[in-house]
Amino acid sequence: MLDRVSGGHVYMILDNGITLIDAGMGHSEKRILEEIKKSGYGPADIRQIIVTHAHPDHIGGLKALRDISGARVMASAVDADAVEGTKPVPIPKSSFAMAFLLRLIRPFLRHVPCPVDVRLRDKDVIPVLGGLVVVELPGHTPGNIGLYCPSKNVLFSGDTLRMKGDEFIEPLNYQGNETQSLASIKKMGSLDYEVMLSGHDQPILTGAAKKVAGFAEKLSH
User: Fold this and answer.
1) Do residues 20 and 11 touch, judged by C-beta distance below 8 A?
2) Is the pTM of this model over 0.70?
């Protein structure tokens, strides 16, 4: 995870060049490139940028990074139009008060539209770390995805789940879309991984899949 990037976490994978997962808030490209330089690499080493979902705190620096590096941009086929700016960025379904607040601040969270080079679908495999498997997890956005790495026992979960301290909390979209969200959480819990790297929270380093499955069970009752 790259340090001090505004917005959602940005992860850097080193394997035949650099793969970035997400791109932070607008203007985050400066901090991201600084952190990459500290690791002994440069913009030309960025091969691809994978977007977990089309929210401004995850795609704000995307267009600038693509322009600087020439990297391929990869996003779910469902959220790709929002990334490219041809459809509105989806707002999570939530309580009336939260939805109203999100609509008020939406003009301040705009991103620069960015072309998507590869539109990802469920079970696509990206040839990094022995294979990053795309896992469609609709709910937080219609095209929200996770990235599952069986060889490393890791799941990059985006914003599918959020935490308060050591406990999971209901995702922003849960109210009004329970069936879809719960199905995605159950899907996460059915995979075999120890480590979960989320879009905002601290990593879960042991027993992550079991914890997710337990939370899904709790939500089912």
Assistant:
1) yes
2) yes
